[in-house]
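Hi there,

I know you've been waiting on this one. I reran it after we fixed the sequence typo, so this is the corrected version. Both the input and the resulting structure follow.
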Amino acid sequence: MPTSKIQAGDIAMHYELSGPANAPVVCLHHCFASSMGYWEEHLPALEGFRVLRFDARGHGGTDVPPGPYTLDMMAADVLNLLNALEIDQVHFCGVSLGGQIAQTFTLAYPSRVASLILVNTTCEYTDAQCDLWRSRAQQALDEGMDAIAGPLMERWFTADAAERRIPGYLYMEKAIVAFTPAAFDAASAAMCMLGTTPRLPEITAPTLVIGTPEDPGAPREVTEKMARLIPNSRLEWLTPAHHLSSLEHPERFNRMLRAFLAEQAA
């Protein structure tokens, strides 16, 4: 399926819309420093659905305007994309940064979300975590992406995944060095504004939270808090993994995703 670009508010967004025209739409939001290619191994789970995947502001083939960005801004990008494509409602699945934007979008535009899938994401950061993101961003600006790629890959994948060089590892290895320092700085600033915890009880859409107990970026206790605070939610663990569990275990993730979406369509 060929990709396209469309004007969505103040940016041109790179996207792909595939699948049966009248089927329910699943909207996929990739993680930080990647692109719509994140979802390649997960597309088989979405057969029969209409699938919208895209590159977020600053990522992939989408425009890279000057930062800093905000989560509200990036959620509005999704709204503008849906409006431009005349899509009324979606099942929204987001990973990491994509999950932060999915939460923000659902809270801002609840009628547009039929269900929500939050994967290895969080609803809050400590001051220390924000300081770490800002120091990484400064290092990227000063020294380039190669300087921070290694430490990030160690947080994102287990040593086993790195040793076996699984497809998801190879994809992210290329994606991180292709990401620009300016986009890293702009998008990490958005993450440091995260704070959806107090509003999670407002989410009424059926929600699947997928986490990893060993995730250094989305700790177990925060994952459990999200599932506890969102009223109509359930929690499933995907392990052993670090931060990008769906890329470490694509088949198991696909079964979780497919089963949840099948329940919503029933």
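Quick highlight: The longest strand covers residues 11-18.

Best,
R. S.
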